């Protein structure tokens, strides 16, 4: 692996619109998914690592599957594709999953998913159907939905209940860095039930990745807001090619030490990757 | 008025959650509102200018009221507080209003409003009620809603039909500048019915104001995306005091010429203000 460290790929299964799989099927299916992922990693352990896919319709089983995949298969965390049956992860039924992630000291990557149907109908309809589809997902709606989800976790007190839980957000933080000062100013006085200012939770419980968004302005803003210790480089292969992603980071206006942190140091620390692998 | 030009105040009536006023009442009521605003301006014409409030439930009357207020009362444009009865301004029934703004060469300021009830229920509920209220409005939801509205106008082809129409967005562009590259990359291929790349419409039909958000990272990002010719300084008085707003602009890392454009030059050009007033 090269000195930039960006050759290590974190594998996971993501879905554009994940169906809600009944618990009776989900537990066995996700176990098979994770075992296949583990087999792919074992064939190239110096190249790949994995995030678990969890049967979230059965939260107790999801917690056990996270523990199995981390302790037995060496997975580095879990990737969760948005809401489960319309519920955010701060719903009390998901507490076992958050407790397991906290106890195992592995992060949860909150991947975008489309907003719920009533939101699509109210906000994204009235345009050519293919425009609505992209507008509600990768073009805009994914990011609003995922930013709402992350802020909902903060505002519901998840990080007061789980003070060591760490999350990862893609796409330069799903819009939150752009408005973090505004969010903090307006929501901290309203959220008197929280122990700390709203911005503190974002700055201390979230890591941010580019997810293939390689233009300087959002990168520089994110760096100004979250700092070089909280950015994990990511390529979004195969949508973006490694060469393009590497050139962006090499040319970004960063000190050598910050470039190394973003390229691999932060990921090695958070995901407990073996830097000599 | 001082050399910064930020003493000129643009007056308008805004509402947190504007009720839909039936046409029979709206036309007379908005006329009275605008006449009172004109009287306040006439008492201090060197200090104040105005945006019209329009009876949008009767679009033909709204177009006539915009023409009356601009040509007879010297108003500088219109302020529209989000959707009208759930409809975005690209709905065909509002075409007379957009045509009037274009013909009169005055901008429409698209002010935030709360998202529709189904969106609040799906995205912002499940928290203490006062947290939901702020989360759905000034803390986050306003800006998503207004960004969606602006993008809906672009994607529906409003600016192909009205090539000279100019809009104003507050809050550093309601999130759009942070993701403009992403929006352009994903939505331009989908929106094959449009004449031009999606980003072009934003860059050539929208001006952006701070609305009292005075931290450097979103300002610098907005400057990098829209440029110094498209930023209009605004204070959001009385929520922010003039002294604080002035200090931010004086200390911002800008060339003298760009500082003058942002402080007053762009507004004087767009709103046809008399710089000697």
UniProtKB/TrEMBL annotation, chains A, B:
Keywords: Hydrolase, Lyase
Gene Ontology, cellular component aspect: cytosol
Protein name as catalogued: Amidohydrolase
Domain named Amidohydrolase-related: residues: 19-273
Matching Pfam families: Amidohydro_2
Any Gene Ontology biological process: secondary metabolic process
GO molecular function: carboxy-lyase activity; hydrolase activity
Keyword Hydrolase applies: yes
Organism name: Thermogemmatispora tikiterensis
InterPro entries per UniProt: ACMSD, Amidohydro-rel, Metal_Hydrolase
């Amino acid at each position: 692996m090269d000195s930039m460290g960006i050759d290590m790929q974190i594998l996971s299964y993501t879905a554009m619109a994940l169906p809600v799989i009944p618990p009776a099927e989900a537990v066995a299916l996700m176990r098979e998914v994770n075992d296949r992922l583990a087999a792919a990693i074992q064939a190239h352990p110096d190249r790949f690592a994995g995030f678990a896919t969890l049967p979230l319709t059965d939260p107790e089983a999801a917690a056990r599957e996270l523990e199995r995949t981390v302790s037995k298969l060496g997975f580095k965390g879990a990737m969760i594709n948005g809401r489960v049956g319309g519920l955010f992860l701060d719903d009390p039924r998901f507490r076992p999953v958050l407790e397991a992630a906290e106890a195992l000291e592995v992060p949860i990557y909150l991947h975008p998913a489309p907003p719920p149907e009533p939101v699509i109908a109210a906000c994204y309809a009235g345009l050519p159907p293919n425009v609505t589809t992209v507008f509600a997902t990768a073009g805009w709606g994914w990011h609003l939905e995922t930013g709402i989800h992350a802020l909902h976790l903060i505002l519901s007190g998840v990080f007061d209940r789980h003070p060591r839980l760490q999350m990862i957000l893609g796409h330069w933080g799903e819009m939150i860095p752009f408005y973090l000062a505004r969010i903090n100013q307006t929501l901290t006085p309203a959220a008197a039930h929280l122990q700390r200012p709203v911005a503190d939770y974002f700055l201390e419980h979230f890591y941010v990745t580019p997810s293939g968004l390689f233009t300087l302005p959002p990168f520089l803003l994110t760096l100004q807001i979250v700092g070089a210790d909280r950015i994990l480089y990511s390529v979004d292969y195969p949508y973006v090619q490694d060469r393009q992603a590497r050139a962006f980071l090499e040319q970004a206006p960063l000190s050598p030490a910050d470039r190394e942190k973003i390229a691999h140091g932060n990921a090695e620390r958070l995901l407990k990757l073996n830097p000599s692998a």
